[in-house]
Design goal:
The protein is of the alpha+beta class. The protein has helices at 11-22, 39-49, 53-56, 62-66, 76-85, and strands spanning 2-5, 28-30, 94-97, 100-103. Helices cover 37% and strands 13% of the residues. Strand 1 (2-5), helix 1 and strand 2 form a beta-alpha-beta unit. The chain starts with a strand and ends in an 11-residue tail after the last strand. The mean pLDDT is 97.
């Protein structure tokens, strides 16, 4: 089963979804801005990505700047909690296939996972 954590307003997310569908795959689409992820789900995604929370946090978002999340004293747990509170902070799209995940930036990255 392939899942995409998707923001339909994001061009990279739309492009990634289109690439998946071009391969004949109908993924489960998780609209994470409408249905925010919990800490356990984000931690699981990080494990599948092999990345830290700092690797997937959107540094250009107002919530990142307003909460001083660039401060190195914030650990992964702190950053995950921030992503739960402010879902826009989570970089997108993330595509999961089984026990592996990949960031769809650039969208072509997803082809290595399918």
């Amino acid at each position: 089963m392939t899942t995409i954590y998707h923001n339909p307003r994001c061009s990279k997310s739309r492009q990634t979804l289109a690439l998946i569908e071009e391969k004949g795959i109908t993924p489960e689409i998780v609209l994470y801005l409408e249905n925010p992820l919990d800490e356990a789900t984000i931690a699981e995604l990080l494990g599948k990505l092999g990345m830290s929370a700092r690797d997937v946090i959107r540094k250009g978002e107002d919530a990142y700047k307003d909460n001083n999340l660039g401060d190195s004293s914030f650990n992964d747990t702190d950053l995950i909690k921030a992503m739960v509170t402010y879902p826009k902070l989570l970089e997108r799209p993330i595509v999961v296939n089984g026990d592996k995940a990949i960031m769809g930036r650039p969208p072509e990255n997803v082809l290595t996972l399918l």
